[in-house]
Hints:
This protein is an alpha/beta fold. It folds into 2 domains: 12-231, TIM Barrel, CATH 3.20.20; 245-368, Lyase, Ornithine Decarboxylase, Chain A, domain 1 (Beta Barrel), CATH 2.40.37.10. 29% of the residues lie in helices and 25% in strands. The chain has helices spanning 12-25, 37-41, 45-54, 65-73, 91-96, 106-112, 139-151, 173-192, 204-209, 231-236, 342-348, 355-359; strands at residues 7-10, 31-35, 59-62, 80-82, 100-103, 121-126, 155-161, 198-202, 217-220, 245-250, 253-257, 262-263, 269-270, 275-280, 296-299, 302-307, 315-319, 328-335, 338-340, 366-368. The strands form 4 sheets. The chain has an 8-stranded parallel β-barrel, surrounded by 4 helices. A 5-stranded mixed sheet has the order 19-18-10-1-20. A 5-stranded antiparallel sheet has the order 11-14-17-16-15, with no helix packed on it. α9 links the parallel β8 and β9. α1 packs across α3 and α7 runs parallel beside α8. The chain is elongated, with a radius of gyration of 24 Å. The two termini are 17 Å apart. Ligand PMH binds at residues 35, 83, 163, 203-205, 219-223, 229, 354.
Amino acid sequence: MIYRNTWAEINLAAIGHNIRQLKETLPEGHQVMTVVKANGYGHGSVQVAKAALDEGINFLMVAMLEEAIELRNAGIRTPTLVIGRVPPIHARVAAKHDITLTVFDLAWLQEISEEVFEYPLSIHLEFETGMNRTGISTERQLREIVATIEKLDHIHLTGAYMHFATADEINTVQYEQQKEQYEMMLGALSKLYPHPLITHIGNSAAGIQYPKEMLQYTRFGVATYGLYPSKDIKELDTVDLQQAFSLYSELIQVKKIAAGECVSYGATYCATEDEWIGTIPIGYGDGWSRKLQGFHVLIDGKKMPIVGRICMDVMMVKLDRAYEVGQLVTLIGKDGDAMIGMSDVANHLETINYEIPCMLTKRIPRTYL
Ligand code: PMH
């Protein structure tokens, strides 16, 4: 049951549209892996995964075993890759749920060898090519890892991948260097282990910028949600993405304050003339950062500034006139011809659009169109 009058609305048709747009740029036969980690970038992983499956995607990616199990518990049996390092003692849980794990160190495999598995475990190797986050760095490490895998009957090597650090910029030398390093490592792997493997290198930025260079799968995250990975990628103008996430609330009180009266904690905003103030039930306890003081919302298609400190549960805006209690407020999304994009909020907070839907807590109910 939803009792509060602040809610996010996720447009699943937009998710479908975005996946179709992305697929169109990829060459025939190339596949989409939909990234639904961090609760589908705050949109709801199960709902997004189902919408993506309706578009014919056939691989899902998450960061943690918990996130993959959540998909399985919702009845989603699609191959699912976990990119994070799952502690070896829990690998058998992944095997039981037919969840693919990432391996990038020998020690992990050595620990696994002590474990008893009821079901085989599928793994993808991650190559370190320049991100310097996780991955196998050298051919020597790769040789040891493959030799160990071959001794473990219950471990099936099914894929190899890497992650770009700079694909959201135009013409980066690093993109080329990382790709070259991956090809070198993949060449070495195919000699050591001459079996078919699922290969994937690209995120949204790489998939949009270099669609012909992606291998079997592209791991599309942010673009699935209708958000561009960067201004540069948006300006390429090759895909038309629709933002799926909107955030709405309603005025819960409207009052007139007199010149000299102040608003909220610290009295940081004081009226210079008589003005209308509206109260909106969202605050930093919902992940709506205090740093959004000075940003705006949309009411009746017009921008209304957020005034005074944002409280834990509510905040105040300056209105251009009196509105009724219950008046719709758009915090993210479209209102008439006006729009607050995820990137507008991100720019105000000096962060990236990715962070905004992730930072809105589960206190804000997600509803689906
Ligand atoms: N593949 C890997 C390994 C990732 O870590 C991510 C996103 C993606 C694909 C999808 O990227 P996209 O959303 O740009 O398409 N990972 C992160 C991250 O760790 N911080 O921001 C995005």
